[in-house]
Structure formats: structure tokens, C-alpha cells
Design goal:
mainly alpha
Length: about 80
């Protein structure tokens, strides 16, 4: 299972799983399972999650990059 920084960044932004679910239009189940490394969602789903995280960024703050939240590994 691929690693990710989703949970730590969600918490750092002050978001609950439900908050992120609403912002990203992804189910709470998928977000929870992704955080716990139980599933590896599609790239489209991951991009929606990153967009949800970026929706709470203030103007002028650097948005999260996809590769930061979901690092690519050579172990695939």
C-alpha cells in the first residue's frame, strides 16, 4: 500500500474527515480508508482530495501539490 500525508495535512488544516469529504466531494469512507492505507484510490479521486485540502488555503498560501500528499514510490 502506498503511503500518503493525507491525515497529517487534514489535521493541520483543522479539517475533520466530514469537512474534507464535503470539500472534495468524496465519501468519508474513502477518505478514512485512504488515511489508514487500506485502499489506494484512483488518481482522479486523489486529485479531488487534494483540491479539497487546497480549498481551505488562504489567499497567498502555497497550495498542496499532488506529489506532496500522495508521493510516488518506486516500489509499485
Amino acid at each position: 500500500m502506498k503511503e500518503n500525508r493525507l491525515k497529517s495535512r487534514r489535521i493541520a488544516e483543522g479539517l475533520t474527515i466530514t469537512d474534507l469529504s464535503r470539500l472534495s466531494k468524496i465519501s468519508t469512507k474513502v477518505i478514512s480508508q485512504t488515511e489508514r492505507f487500506l485502499i489506494d484510490p484512483t488518481e482522479v479521486t486523489k486529485r479531488k482530495i487534494v483540491n479539497g485540502l487546497n480549498a481551505v488555503k488562504r489567499s497567498g498560501e502555497k497550495p498542496y501539490e499532488f506529489e506532496y500528499i500522495f508521493p510516488r514510490t518506486d516500489r509499485d
